[in-house]
Each structure stands twice: as C-alpha cells, then as structure tokens.
C-alpha cells in the first residue's frame, strides 16, 4: 500500500483561503464533526473583550 504525503505548507495554504473568519472556522469544525457522525460535540467559546 502506498502512503500519501502532503507537505504541511500545502494544507496551510489551502486552509487560508477556506477559513476566512473565526465564525467560519467554528462552523466548519461543527460540520466536520457532524459529517464524521460524532456522538457528542462540545464547543467551548471564550469571550475576550478588548478595551
């Protein structure tokens, strides 16, 4: 069986265009969890107020 090796720079480059904001990142994580048929999904969000 052959292994597929992907340079991490490729993943970083592709992800930069797909994830455009923190909100989109959270939505993608949730969608991926659902697609993987996760039994539980736990999301912890921290509110940071900049003054």
Describe this structure in words.
With 51 residues, the protein is mainly alpha-helical. The chain has one domain. The mean pLDDT is 83. It is 49% helix and 0% strand.
Keyword list:
flat; 51 residues; 0% strand; mainly alpha
Task: Briefly summarize what is shown.
With 51 residues, the chain is mostly helical. The chain has two helices and no strands. 0% of the residues are buried.
H-E string: HH
- What portion of the residues fall into strands of 2 or more residues? under 5%
Tell me, rounded to a whole number, the average pLDDT. 83
What oligomeric assembly is this protein in? single chain
Rg, nearest Å: 15 Å
What's the helical proportion of residues? 40-55%
Furnish the topology, listing elements before pairings.
Layout: H1 8-18, H2 22-35
